[in-house]
Amino acid sequence: MFDKGANKLDRIAAYLRDKAVDVPSKTPSKLKYPTEGFDSDCTEINTCEIDSFLYDDEDIEDMVQRDILSRTYCPTCNSRDTVALNFISHSLSRLQVKFLFDKLMPSTCQHVLDIGSRLGAVVYGASIFTNGNVSTVGVEMDADYAALALRTIRQFGIKNVEILRDDIRHLPHVFKDEQFIVMNNVFSFFLSKTEQEECWEYLHTHMRPGTVLAHHPPIEKITEHLDLSFSVEDWLEFVNTAEECLEYGGNDQEIYEEMESICKYIVRDSKSADASVVE
């Protein structure tokens, strides 16, 4: 099932590439680059945005060879000649999407929630790799991305999925029991520090105990500069996935690290924790 599903993801990625979606270029991306915290080393000048769902390492190297992309820039004149660029993606790769549903999502989960759905990669994977047996919701604020995901869902007959064009802070009803939630650093490059804090406070309030959360990169790192009313460690239990990453990566260190960059957490039961403290 997973090999067949991976082939379907490849076809979806090709379909989206043919529509000239998020085409990489040497032109700097217009993002809200973080000035504090984990990603504050990324700027408009030193960062290149490439969608990992659409383009793998071979695609990137091909574009470099054809002078569509550069791996370097000049920090003095901005000509991109001498210093390595930061490459970032706001989508997980196809292999990472497969890994989510092959190794990280518990078989007991009945609901998938993809926050910051973008092109819909996780939504497609949730349906494809579970044969549509789980209910999946993708939340995306950008109207163009949401519309494109809906067209792709219809084109490929993706089952039991829903795309909501909205802010997650307006959607308390999407949080369920027995849920698997996926996030790919959806706040850092798009929201102010205050807005990020509001989003994390909202998630802390609405994610239900026992929820399994897969987040790229580590939540502890991207929230350490934020002023939150709670401790991430008290809220989330980190789950070691080294064995699963090794199974995917084998002797390939790059693949191992790519899988390892997705962190798995379980939302703790705050009532049980409070009771333990009292005891």
Automatic annotation (TrEMBL):
Signal peptide: none annotated. It comes from the Eukaryota. Coiled coil: none annotated. CDD domains: AdoMet_MTases (cd02440). InterPro entries: Arsenite_MeTrfase-like, SAM-dependent_MTases_sf. GO terms for molecular function: methyltransferase activity. This is Methyltransferase type 11 domain-containing protein. It comes from Caenorhabditis brenneri.
